[in-house]
Design goal:
Length: about 300
């Protein structure tokens, strides 16, 4: 029997040590994301023979494909048994191509795979977001140029002295965009609040833009694999300050991710506008993800 329990900030080092063994680029394999979204997703974790197991959901539970090293077949079998105790078939989320292949080898014919486009992570070459070179990035450079002409601004790294200003900006952003009327934005607001409250404990990096002394954009991220920096949060008053999103993206990338090959800007949740924006930055590739559903007799 697996002893699932709530994730706490004290789990960070142990979780990170196990995640490092797999070195997955998918955003789900980040302690910050696991912890920050745990309230919204009812996340529970367990450590099992070298693997991190992650279970979430309401009455209907699902599990993240295990990260770690050891006997994967034993870990998946334990998850099958855990789901059976809940009288549910096992559903594994965030199954990437290699994981799909392994499941097919270890459990031939026992899983049905569903490719979920809305969950694909967008992975960019860091040098593309830092240099914005070539004709394909001309629209981005134009927006940044106009922002520079229209506004007197400066960039600051997020630290203890300005962290609460980001909290207040997030609250203002949510009022402006009516987060309380959108369940997805409500969940995101909770996750963002937790990330900012535990910013130092999670060893996150962040940056903000000021115009006239006011914080008008900020972003937060961290290195999540050996070659990838993941942007967890990016907020701006883009309508009031056109170009703010492009500037905070550019400034943050060049100051925090230049030492890594890739930048993961996470998924688009199926939002048409967000998808268009993320595609406009020309991703190097996508992290494709499947759900793997156990086939029951």
């Amino acid at each position: 029997m697996i002893n699932f329990r709530a994730v706490t900030i004290a789990d960070k080092e142990k979780v990170n040590a196990v995640l490092k063994l797999s070195d997955f680029r998918a955003a789900e394999y980040s302690f910050a994301n696991i912890f920050n979204w745990s309230k919204a997703f009812n996340t529970e974790i367990a450590f099992f023979e070298g693997f991190l197991l992650n279970r979430g959901g309401g009455e209907r539970k699902s599990y993240i494909y295990p990260a770690g090293a050891g006997n994967l077949q034993a870990a998946i079998t334990a998850l099958i048994e855990d789901a059976a105790l809940l009288e549910q078939p096992l559903v594994l989320r965030t199954v990437q191509a290699e994981g799909k292949q392994l499941l097919e080898q270890l459990f031939p014919g026992r899983f049905h795979f569903i490719l979920l486009r809305n969950t694909f992570d967008y992975i960019y070459h860091s040098e593309d977001l830092i240099n914005l070179s070539g004709k394909k990035f001309q629209p981005k450079r134009n927006l940044i140029s106009r922002f520079n002409k229209n506004f007197e601004w400066h960039y600051e790294a997020i630290a203890a002295g300005n962290l609460q200003e980001c909290v207040r900006m997030n609250e203002e952003w949510c009022r402006k965009y009516a987060c309380h009327e959108n369940s997805s934005l409500r969940a995101e607001t909770c996750a963002v609040r937790r990330a900012l409250n535990y910013f130092s404990d999670e060893s996150l990096s962040g940056g903000l833009l000021r115009v006239g002394g006011k914080v008008i954009a900020y972003t937060v991220g961290e290195q999540t694999s050996s070659d990838t920096f993941t942007v967890h949060i990016e907020k701006a008053f883009g309508e009031e300050f056109p170009g703010a999103y492009q500037v905070i993206n550019y400034e943050f990338a060049r100051r925090h991710a230049a030492h890594l090959k890739y930048i993961n800007r996470e998924d688009d949740t199926g939002d048409e506008g967000l998808r268009k924006a993320k595609l406009s930055y020309r991703p190097a590739f996508m992290v494709e993800k499947y759900n793997a559903e156990l086939i029951t007799a």
